[in-house]
Amino acid sequence: MLECRKIVPARSVLTSRTVSIEPHPITNASYFTFKKFKFKTKVFQILFCNLERVFLYFQIHKMAAHLKYGNGMPNKTRLSRESIRDLAQKAIAARKRAIAPYSNFYVGAALITRDGRIYEAGNIESSSYGLTICAERVALFKALSDGETEFSAIAIAAGTQDFCSPCGACRQVLWDYAPDIEVILVNQVEEIQTYSLKELLPNAFDKKLL
Predict the structure, then answer these.
(1) How many structural domains are present in the chain?
(2) One domain, residues 82 and 52
(3) Which of 16, 47, 85, 155 is 20 to 30 Å apart from 170, CA to CA?
């Protein structure tokens, strides 16, 4: 039985009296209110724990992706990880066929079309240095000359510890013919970073401005 004390005035003197409150004889409202509160608290604890586990799972998954694919951005391409790794290997192989007798800076590129066809190329240097063509543009020009117009990704491999990002000229030409392409960078220890071309060339100049 619950009790509460009610203060009532009696002329100039305050007196107190005890008022008894009986719970409802059938529903026992006080008891059920308490049980409902405990139930809600338990549900909240379960949901919070599950959300914490989901967050931890994705954090571990993200860390694992960074460890496997390098310290750059996680994989965002439309390709599977196996396809990314295969494209990276083709870029590494293409690097061995690069022609760079003046700079000795060898770069390989592998460009994949939407239908899965792959074009490989290395950079080609000229004694007139300004006429040198980067591996990315050689691969793209090969594909364009074969009538290809839709591309998914390009992998670029260099023999450096740091990742070799496309130069400004390559970014511009890629933007002109493959603005939605994903760029996969591979260093000498075969770590991988991925970027969208829009990240590498924000606010790009193109035919819309002509």
Answers:
(1) 2
(2) no
(3) 85
DSSP letters, 46-114, are HHHHHHHHHHHHHHHHHHHHHHHH-SSPPP-SSS-HHHHHHHHHHHHHHHTT-B-TTT---EEEEEEET
Q: Read off the pLDDT of residues 37-68 as tens digits, 9 standing for 90 and up.
A: 566 666 667 776 777 776 666 666 555 554 44
User: Which has the closest alpha carbon to 113: 145, 78, 138, 150?
Assistant: 150
Nearest alpha-carbon partner for 125 in 112, 117, 134, 113: 134
Residue 176 has pLDDT above 70, yes or no: yes
pTM exceeds 0.70 for this model: no
- Helix/strand/coil for 201: coil
Residue 6: in which H helix or E strand, if any?
strand 2-10
The contacts of residue 182 (CB under 8 Å, 6+ apart) are 76, 77, 78, 79, 152, 153, 154, 194, 195, 196, 197
**Residues forming a β-bridge with 196:** 182
| Same domain (yes/no): 99, 46 | no
Residues involved in catalysis: 136
Q: Are both 104 and 134 inside the same structural domain?
A: yes
Give residues with Cβ within 8 angstroms of 126, minimum separation 6: 132
